[in-house]
């Protein structure tokens, strides 16, 4: 099952994964595109327009320079027969649990929220500690899906109203009444009380990382002067593969280029705009060269998420500027031993004029 992802392009050694997807007994994708990944799906379930969804930025507020909260309500209603994405996912969960496709997703939605409320009333510290869970569920009853969960999170959060305990606190109703958002003031220091390290301080050099430095040094010592490594990059208008099927984002100059330092270009006889053959542990490809002193000598860069020339897809815009898939060069046998994460940067490659 995939949800909006495109691992057949974004995963290392993606050609191998693409072949594996073709051998699955069954695959379902929640996606608005038939792309390199979803072309393998037996069923593609299209979500409605994003304009039918409310939005609250759960992730990026943790990086904000002030405490703020803002909710954007849906701009248009669902069409007849359309389902919200959360309903689609809960229906799939019901199928996976054996309840069948006709089971009411609202029952599972109620079960999830009830569990979250139970945790809130038993968690210390909490502004609803010891409260009656049924009472709080009753106050949330007018909402469904993500909005109900968001209302609960706001009301039990550090600025929440605690379901009436703080009349001036946050709730989703407060944000709906303030369409431009609410400024909750400057950030406040939280260190060291939030630290959970054994030492009670920020451990910038934990023992596992320090112990791994020797492996890094040995790797650097093994490098030869003419060795070249490949790193990835993101462009403001093409962070991920789905953006390549939007005409206003893909127009203009070619962004799927191999950035090469002038010294390396001269040494290898590479011409600006000319084809370069790149060979890595996982495979090879040909990309246009872009000579740039932004790169260090011995380092080249390809953006990720491209390679939209795969048969069976239906990306009418992206197919006009397919680019190349940098992850064809990666090898799944190489991974970071500390995190277990795939190696997508620092890949050794060989270059030649294509």
Give a quick set of tags describing it:
single chain; 354 residues; alpha/beta; Barwin-like endoglucanases; 2 domains; six-stranded mixed sheet; 11 strands
Please tell me about this protein's structure.
The protein has 2 domains: 2-186, no CATH class; 215-353, Barwin-like endoglucanases (Beta Barrel), CATH 2.40.40. Helix content is 27%, strand content 14%. The protein has helices at 7-10, 14-21, 85-96, 105-122, 133-140, 145-156, 172-177, 207-221, 247-250, 262-268; strands at 2-3, 28-30, 43-45, 66-69, 182-186, 228-233, 258-260, 275-279, 284-291, 299-303, 347-353. Strand 8 and strand 9 form a beta hairpin. Helix 4 packs across helix 5 (133-140). The longest helix is centred in the first third of the chain and has 18 residues, at 105-122. It is globular.
**What's the total helix number?**
10
Distance between the termini: 38 Å
Weakly predicted, low-confidence segments: none
Strand order of the largest sheet: 7-9-8-11-6-10
Number of strands: 11
Major sheet attributes: 6 strands, mixed
Tally of structural domains: 2
Let me know the average pLDDT: 93
Residues in β-strands, percent: 5-15%
The helix fraction, in percent, is 25-40%
| Helix and strand composition category | alpha/beta
Order of helical and strand elements: EHHEEEHHHHHEHEHEHEEEE
Radius of gyration: 25 Å
The general outline is: globular
């Amino acid at each position: 099952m995939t949800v909006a992802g495109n691992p057949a392009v974004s995963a290392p050694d993606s050609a191998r994964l693409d072949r594996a997807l073709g051998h699955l007994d069954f695959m379902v994708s929640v996606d608005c595109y038939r792309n390199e990944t979803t072309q393998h799906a037996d069923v593609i379930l299209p979500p409605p327009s994003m304009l039918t969804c409310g939005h609250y930025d759960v992730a990026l507020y943790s990086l904000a320079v002030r405490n703020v909260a803002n909710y954007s309500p849906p701009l248009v209603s669902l069409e007849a027969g359309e389902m919200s994405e959360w309903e689609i996912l809960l229906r799939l969960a019901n199928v996976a649990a054996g309840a069948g496709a006709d089971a009411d997703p609202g029952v599972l939605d109620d079960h999830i929220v009830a569990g979250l409320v139970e945790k809130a009333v038993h968690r210390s510290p909490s502004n609803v500690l010891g409260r009656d869970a049924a009472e709080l569920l009753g106050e949330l009853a007018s909402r469904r899906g993500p909005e109900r969960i968001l209302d609960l999170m706001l009301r039990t959060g550090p600025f929440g109203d605690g379901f009436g305990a703080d009349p001036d606190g946050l709730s989703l109703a407060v944000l709906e009444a303030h369409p431009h958002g609410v400024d909750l003031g400057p950030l406040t220091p939280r260190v060291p009380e939030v630290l959970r390290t054994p030492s009670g301080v920020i451990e910038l050099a934990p023992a596992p990382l320090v112990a791994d430095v020797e492996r890094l040094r040995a790797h650097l010592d093994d490098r030869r002067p003419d060795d070249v490594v490949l790193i990835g990059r993101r462009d403001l208008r093409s962070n991920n593969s789905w953006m390549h099927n939007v005409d206003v984002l893909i127009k203009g100059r070619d962004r799927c280029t191999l950035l090469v330092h002038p010294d390396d270009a001269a040494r290898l006889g590479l011409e600006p705009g000319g084809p370069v053959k790149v060979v890595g542990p996982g495979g090879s490809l040909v990309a246009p060269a872009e000579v740039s002193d932004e790169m260090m000598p011995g380092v080249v860069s390809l953006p990720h998420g491209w390679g939209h020339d795969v048969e069976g897809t239906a990306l009418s815009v992206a197919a006009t500027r397919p680019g190349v898939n940098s992850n064809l060069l990666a090898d799944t046998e190489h991974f970071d031993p500390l995190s277990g994460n795939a190696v997508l940067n620092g890949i050794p490659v060989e270059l030649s004029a294509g």
